TrEMBL record:
<dbReference type="GO" id="GO:0016887">
    <property type="term" value="F:ATP hydrolysis activity"/>
</dbReference>
<keyword id="KW-1133">Transmembrane helix</keyword>
<feature type="domain" description="ABC transmembrane type-1">
    <location>
        <begin position="20"/>
        <end position="337"/>
    </location>
</feature>
<dbReference type="GO" id="GO:0005886">
    <property type="term" value="C:plasma membrane"/>
</dbReference>
<dbReference type="Pfam" id="PF00005">
    <property type="entry name" value="ABC_tran"/>
</dbReference>
<dbReference type="InterPro" id="IPR039421">
    <property type="entry name" value="Type_1_exporter"/>
</dbReference>
<feature type="transmembrane region" description="Helical">
    <location>
        <begin position="283"/>
        <end position="302"/>
    </location>
</feature>
<dbReference type="InterPro" id="IPR017871">
    <property type="entry name" value="ABC_transporter-like_CS"/>
</dbReference>
<keyword id="KW-0812">Transmembrane</keyword>
<dbReference type="InterPro" id="IPR003439">
    <property type="entry name" value="ABC_transporter-like_ATP-bd"/>
</dbReference>
<keyword id="KW-0547">Nucleotide-binding</keyword>
<dbReference type="InterPro" id="IPR011527">
    <property type="entry name" value="ABC1_TM_dom"/>
</dbReference>
<dbReference type="InterPro" id="IPR027417">
    <property type="entry name" value="P-loop_NTPase"/>
</dbReference>
<feature type="transmembrane region" description="Helical">
    <location>
        <begin position="177"/>
        <end position="201"/>
    </location>
</feature>
<dbReference type="InterPro" id="IPR003593">
    <property type="entry name" value="AAA+_ATPase"/>
</dbReference>
<keyword id="KW-0067">ATP-binding</keyword>
<keyword id="KW-0472">Membrane</keyword>
Amino acid sequence: MKNFKRFLKYLIPYKKQQMLSILFNILYALFSSLSMLSLLPMIKVLFDEGKKLKKKPEFHSFKDFDLNYIENYLNYFITTMNTTKGPLITLITIVGFVLSTFLLKNLFSYLSILYMTYLNNGILKDLRQDVYNKVISLNVGFFSNERKGDLIARMTSDINTIKVSFMSILMMIREPLTILFTLIAMIAISWKLTVFVFFFIPISGFLISKLSKGIKSQSGDIFALEGHLLSNIEETLGGIKIIKNFTAESYFSKKFNDFTKNINDLNNSIGKVMSLSAPASEFLGILVISILLVYGGSLVLIDQSLSGGAFMAYMGLAYQILTPAKAITKAHHALQGGNAAYERVAFILDAKNPLKDKPNAKVITEFKHEIKFNNVSFKYKEDYVLKNFNLTVPKGKIVALVGESGSGKSTIANLITRFYDVNEGSITFDGINIKDVTTKSLREQMGIVAQDSILFNDTIANNISLGIEEMDEEKITAAAKIANAHNFISDFPKKYQNNVGDGGSLLSGGQRQRIAIARAVMKNPPIMILDEATSSLDTESEKLVQNALENMMENRTSIVIAHRLSTIQNADLIVVMKNGSIIEQGTHEELLKMNGTYHNLVSLQSLEVSQLT
């Protein structure tokens, strides 16, 4: 219940639906009891029970309004109507009254469930939005440590479990009320018989708690396994070509089978408990009703302190308690499963973002002078990727980073955009530590074109104008032309409204990269970061993309992470990195004269090209 309480804040925007639902639940509970009590006059008419009263009972004050008064007034009403209109009309009138009470009961039931559904769906919508907003606000490092499939499970199936649990708990408002009004009516008819019901409730509750013990922990295990299952599916779909190429179908099939078997075993374990609870609670109810039949029958047949009609109405009320009691049982089980789901969703909502903006963070609107790395050291986990790194990127200059894989080049891009924070030292933007500025305003000054061009399953136009609220077709076309993408886009049937497919699967590698460049151009930032933007392309595509990159970098500050050294020979500064440190820096000509690492890299790549030709 503790986990449930933290989600009560989501009720606040839906006070109207909540109050209406409570009102209709109260009316439903009231008419549930009245509908059974309404059977009493019908029984009196059918079996000619009750005293024949021709004088209307006197009513002086509310003190006179008790069960004895109601019964006397009922006997007077039936006697008078029988005398004046006959027994058939009397029966039809009473049946009409019974139908009215049952109609109102079911009408209020419908309205209470309707407004409860509005309430529950609204809460679910807000919770989903909050979880999604929290996910996209978290730092990149958070996702490095979590399985994508497990996060998807927490954001989808776990939230759906919360919906079912929340609905069950909210519906519990009506069940205790139904039991309360029913018990009041039962006490009014016979307090002696009602004593037996009070024995049933604690016994049932004790047995239910015993049966449901362990459901929460097992539900948590199932949710975790289903998250791993989604991760497995996501990996399978993403790597289907590799799986087939290495004929690893049987390995992945066995791995998937192990997940499904474990989930199946846990589901069966919970199913056994939940399947037993409903029949067990119903049997306990029937057992108590059997005892009531024996004892109540003695009050009618032997003691004669209770009329047959009153006893039948009482039995109807007693049996009516079983339905809300079973509903409470189901809600209790739903709460156990919901608690486990709450904890998994709360894991996302409670996740801390170490890169959260400071309360007094500054907003930067332009790039004036330089970006500077001051004795920066950084590690993703245990080993340092950068060590005492110092570098200045002046405005309007092209700075290229080269070196072997793992030398820390891409880490520079991650740090400058503040996907991660430095462990030691600082990075300043025009003299201001980037930790002291808002992340949004910092990233608005930068555009990134990476090796893996990420496109979304949307139109070409929407991919180019990503992050821009008001789409301008002329600007989109202009950006595409700068990126050398306009010609191939114009060949598509729907041109800029053509869909790129999942991850841009309907485009070639070069086309995807040029769309990514157009997106960066459309953003029009003063700083461009190119992270090996041409390394995965063929020669023809590379030439087109390289021309597009040169168009884009014109009059901009650029940080270029390069694998192919031929693409950065015109850079203002080339920085050669190894093991997280700068070992050489200068222009292309200066570095060649040093006859060091850069010279060797150029020679190796020239040799590779000559061998290929």
